[in-house]
Amino acid sequence: xxxxxxxxxxxxxxxxxxxxxxxxxxxxxxxxxxxxxxxxxxxxxxxxxxxxxxxxxxxxxxxxxxxxxxxxxxxxxxxxxxxxxxxxxxxxxxxxxxxxxxxxxxxxxxxxxxxxxxxxxxxxxxxxxxxxxxxxxxxxxxxxxxxxxxxxxxxxxxxxxxxxxxxxxxxxxxxxxxxxxxxxxxxxxxxxxxxxxxxxxxxxxxxxxxxxxxxxxxxxxxx
Length: 223
Ligand code: DC
Prior knowledge:
single chain; alpha/beta
């Protein structure tokens, strides 16, 4: 049987960096579920839908075939046969994903894909509802968070490194808005699973967070 590590938390908490590092060390597969929601959002944007047209999204998603492949260990997201990985980090796509991920048909479709992956492979999967909904029996569950200001600073740094200028206050406002949407939506809202361990990365290094998760994993193996 495969081993599953679930890492949930708000945008910018460092989930993907940490999950990737943990997966590498344990030789597990890293599954970034946010990228799947982003690929779906990209599809909807390409269909000419806007975030105001949620009622059309359920039907539209039926024609989007999303799958995951790995290239040199890195997750690549395929949308109807096209590798769209490089297009998913744009703010427009992220904002659309935050809206479209609340649509039941979209969640059903992507949760099914996520469960299939986790049943076949040892995975470190990150997202918003992995411990609460997708993999309720995951061996390790972590809720990774950080203050909104810390997360905005990290995002700005990331953008500036790519040569994109940004205004910290705008990024922070965006983060707060997205948190609110993710935490208050009706289906699978972002929340800490009862049996998840809370880690606040505001004052922790990547290495410290990684080690904390690996030691949780080792404890479950010994138990
Ligand atoms: O982690 P991210 O920023 O790439 O996620 C993009 C959006 O997708 C985010 O606003 C919430 C949504 N999402 C979700 O609803 N469930 C998941 N398991 C992962 C992401």
